[in-house]
Amino acid sequence: MTARRVRAPHLRDMKRRGESIAVLTAYDAITARLFERSGVDVILVGDSVGMAVLGYTSTIPVTMDMMVHHTQAVARGTSRVLVIADMPFLAAQVTVSEAVANAGRLIQEGGAAAVKIEGGEPVVETVRRLVDVGIPVMGHLGLQPQSVHQIGGFRKRATDQADADRLLNDAGALENAGAFAVVLEAIPDDVAANVTRLLSIPTIGIGAGPSCDGQVLVGHDMLGFCHEPPPSFVRQYARLADVIDTAARAYVRDVKDGHFPGKPVGAHTAHESE
User: Fold this and answer.
1) pTM, two decimal places
2) Active-site residue, selected from the candidate residues 19, 98, 185, 274
3) Are 118 and 145 contacting, i.e. CB atoms less than 8 angstroms apart?
4) pLDDT tens column, 128-152
């Protein structure tokens, strides 16, 4: 019997039951299929694709067309998980009507079941309108990578009381607007715990401590695809960069030495035919 597909309302049920929510990012069908087989609940097609896959130094260059393309791939590779797609830079922070059109592309063309939007009070009306037209929305507070130029880099947020209070108010506003969950990125553990306690919708942490209702990691970070050290909050469950490096070097060596593909089947040397 095929397991039922995870839907946005199921995450609130999981929070109510005290069941932790496991989220990973993926950007292609093969990885998404493997993650789904692992039992992950949610796959986020993050605009982190810009840094994890496309070679950019931030998420800002990622476009709607890129997000639609990668969301389509993930949707093709899954049948059970909840697929959430990021609204890239300025896709939601324009007019509400343009935000609805952009989110609609991720749902209709991309095959996502929900979208994620960075920001608090400034995007609340957009969130409300998206929910009104039937598009589930996940919020994103704390470190917002799309605002990296404004905040001066990738650094921890809500580290003083005023910012922590502002984040809590933003979280409540997102919930009141109809968001079904909110990502909390790079904020102090106690702030995340407070938000999680006060919201009825689930919180998904990334560098926000153990008290959130779920956790998300960039799949490439978790798998150790890069030789560079990952962010301090990442736990690497594999070192695939080392595995790939070893395999590729072995292949190159075999080609250079004539060991691959080897002697064709049925071939004979001159000596053997005498």
Assistant:
1) 0.92
2) 185
3) yes
4) 999 999 999 999 999 987 766 555 5
